Amino acid sequence: MLLTGEEERMLSGAEGRAVGKGMQLIVALGEVFGAERLVRITSAQIAGVSYGNIGDAGLELLEDWASAGARVRVKATLNPAGMDLERWREMGVGEEYYGKQIRIIKAFERMGVETTCTCTPYLAGNLPSFGDHIAWSESSAVVYANSVLGARTNREGGPSALAAALTGRTPLYGLHLDEGRRATAIVEVGAELRSPHEFSLLGYAVGMRMGAGVPFFEGIKRAEVEDLKILSAALAASGGIGMFHMKGVTPEARFQDTAGLERILVSAQDLEKARERLSSHGEPDLACIGCPHCSVKELAEIARILEGRRVRAGKGLWVWTSRAAYDEAKRRGYVQAIEAAGGKVFADTCMVVCPLEASGFSHMVTNSCKAAHYVPSTSGMGASVRSLESAVSEVLEG
Amino acid sequence: MSVPEKVVSVATFSGRGIARFRGEGEALVTRQGISFFGGVDPKSGLVKEKGHELFGKDITGKVLVFPRGKGSTVGSYVIYQLKKSGHAPAAIINSETEAIIATGCILAEIPLVDRLGVDPTEAIATGDRVSVDGEAGIVRVEKGQRY
């Protein structure tokens, strides 16, 4: 692979042990994927934050790099942690887990990473421009950044996104190149999508059907941020998809030549099949909303649904969001409204990366296919998917 | 009368060096993919994936030969943890490697070579003595010895 003088210098360790190790990793991955050179990035989103996921090994590595003086060279933000950094006790998280999670956050802080702890960096100040090369992990944000923002990133892992932040480089291949961003199949949506939940079902169905590749959606009249983020999450959860185009909605759709591409028809029945596949037997006792993290608008909608109603005894309503959206929603009174009705709003974490089994509940109902895909294996709980309104209503009185 | 010597054949393969370190040891070979996250115990080096043909085997100090990695990207951290606990393999040889194994081997400084030009799970047998030069991408296999 072709390296510049500056890159060679980083690789040699002349800019510190951690930068040297980071560059070794970037170069090795470039070789694995056949990249000819590296490209400068403007932004990084780093996953692998939850203590429950990365364990003592991850903690040790991060503290080692932080102690070696590693510092990020570009804007870098963090994925959700394994607990609400302030209200962790209410989630059932223990002291030891808490202590180690805080050490992980501190290590990232020492390296200059903004500890945003959200899977929606694009709603929390990390908003790359069209055409920017970036290195993001967090599969849902990868799909959103490529598709909706027109920035360019592969599906990075936690260590490779961190290495990219420390070196300011990523290997140039895949979704960084025009060839890798071309539509590979047309998805004709034959169902009316009335809520973000239905966009989620669509994403899950298409991810299962295609596995990989770049879908080109036709037949969707409009889509809002909340629709696009939950669609992105589902596409990445059921498949290995890193980007989509949507006719009339996403910025690169108009440059696509779709002549001769395979055509996949997705009907209302296909969406129903995705729902059935993700729903296990059992009565839901915990409604979880916020995968990806709720926007302020979604928090307002939950507060509206709860007007004059209450969460039933023995049931729970846990809502997940970023610290940024939490603060804004608190200012507007939505957090107070949700909690007065018996719900809880947690920030910095989510149902997928926290020890949800510590909640004491046994069956989660959610509007997000990604959450329903992962929670049974991460927590051992049952899962069901419904629209936001019916998932919330499931745990209310009356 | 002297005891006849054991027949030892030596083969050398040239591949792609991904993690540029050196190591040697006894080969442990499987034709199945390995998921380090959930599949290998980071504290003991024992394979714990139920139904895996290496189930219960210890990878500590072995030259681990398998087609490619699979599973969660957290597997990279498990490889790093194996190194810290003293239970890392001496080297890894893949048919065609991928990002999880490559990342783990770089972080943990375990030599990693792939694309030997032959199927490594055929060319190398469990028990062979193998040395891996991740810098040059060279793998040397001594067959017929017993340890």
What does this molecule look like?
The complex is a heterodimer of chains A (398) and B (147). Chain A is of the alpha/beta class. Chain A has 3 domains: 174 residues, Aconitase, domain 3 (2-Layer Sandwich); 95 residues, no CATH class; 115 residues, 2-Layer Sandwich (Aconitase, domain 3), CATH 3.30.499. Chain A contains 14 helices and 14 strands. A 5-stranded parallel sheet of chain A has the order 12-11-10-13-14, with helices on both faces. A 4-stranded parallel sheet of chain A has the order 8-7-6-9. In chain A, strand 13, helix 13 and strand 14 form a beta-alpha-beta unit. In chain A, helix 5 packs across helix 8. The N and C termini of chain A lie far apart (65 Å). Chain B is of the alpha/beta class and 147 residues long. Chain B has a single domain, classed as 3-Layer(bba) Sandwich (Glucose Oxidase, domain 1). Chain B has an 8-stranded mixed sheet. In chain B, a hairpin with a 4-residue loop joins strand 7 and strand 8. In chain B, helix 2 runs parallel beside helix 3. The chains are: A alpha/beta (398), B alpha/beta (147). At the A-B interface, helix 2, helix 3 and helix 6 of A face strand 2, helix 2 and helix 3 of B.
